[in-house]
Amino acid sequence: MSEAADQIFAMLKQSAQSGAPLYLQLRKSIEDAVNRGLIGPGDALPSERDIASKADISRVTVRKAVQDLVKGGILVQRHGSGTFVAPRMERVEQSLSRLTSFTEDMARRGMAVRSAWLDRGLYAPSPDEMMVLGLSSNELVARVARLRIANDTPLAIERAALSASVLPDPAAIGSSLYAALETTGHRPVRAVQRISAANLGDDDARLLEVPSGIAGLHIERISYLASGKVIEFTRSIYRGDAYDFVAELRLSGPGEEGRP
Ligand code: GLP
Question: Locate the HTH gntR-type domain: which residues (predicted)?
Fold first, then answer.
């Protein structure tokens, strides 16, 4: 019996007292073994038959647990060769001190970027959009919603809102919103970004190809022109398993806010 199998059965023994249905116990044992790194990305899972006979449970129960984990993205099944621990997402490290675009961030890392359009058009603004962008109810808002994909992996859903006076034809932007804004002299020079934790709803999870309910990051960016006017109000959902946001911290100088 493989080392992976031993690890799973050790976890299964620990959860045997829980009284939970057997398939849930097995699912949790496999998940725990993966999360604790006892079995790693690419490791083969023992066969359905081996697990069933060693744990003394039916193959139907094993199949149910394994199918759940495949659906949840923890395991992958390769036709003809078996079931494996899914490869781990390579994390993107993103500085929080530079005002860059998604296209620039990914290009710097040598990743191929593309976007799938979810929505683009002119709409009556929502109360939030009116407040942030300083629009009145008889003005229009340009909405640009995209699934952002790098090296074929969906990383984020970004929903940008701008005044229609700045972006009168949202369908005309190419692959980069910031590049389009640059051509009309509206590229932002400063932004305030708010990051919070979010559990992904069904629709977002499906687009990002992750299990529903999994942890993600909600990011709101409000960006400004040099004149101080708000130019962009973007709300995004990023995959929690793909991003590390990194900020450099310095001791503040004399007279600066926050000095102890
Ligand atoms: C980042 C920001 C968004 C911004 C986008 C522009 O991802 N979070 O607020 O709209 O970059 O990216 P691009 O110019 O590639 O469309």
Answer: 20-88
User: How far is ligand 1, taken at its centre, from the CA of residue 178, in Å?
Assistant: 7
Backbone angles phi, psi at 94, to 5 degrees: -120, 120
Domain ranges of the chain: 3-85, 92-246
Pairing between β-strand 113-123 and β-strand 215-224 as defined by DSSP bridges: unpaired
Max CA distance (Å), the chain: 71
- How is residue 194 written in tokens? 């708010």
Which atom of ligand 1 sits closest to the CA of residue 156?
7
| Residue 20 neighbours by CB distance under 10 Å | 13
Question: Does the beta carbon of 160 sit less than 6 angstroms from any atom of ligand 1?
Answer: yes
3-85 is classed CATH 1.10.10.10: yes
Q: What is the rounded CA–CA span in Å between residue 1 and residue 54?
A: 9
pLDDT tens, residue by residue, 59-114: 999 999 998 888 777 888 888 888 988 877 677 778 788 899 999 988 888 888 99
For residue 258, the one-letter residue type is G
Q: Output the pTM of the full model.
A: 0.72
32 CB-side CA count, 13 A: 16
* CATH code linked to domain 92-246: 3.40.1410.10
pLDDT over 90 at 139, yes or no: yes
d(CA 102, ligand 1 centre) in Å? 5
Residue 158 in contact with ligand 1 by CB distance below 6 A? yes
- The Cα–Cα gap between 23 and 20 comes to 8
Instruction: Answer yes or no: are the C-beta atoms of 103 and 176 closer than 8 Å.
Output: yes
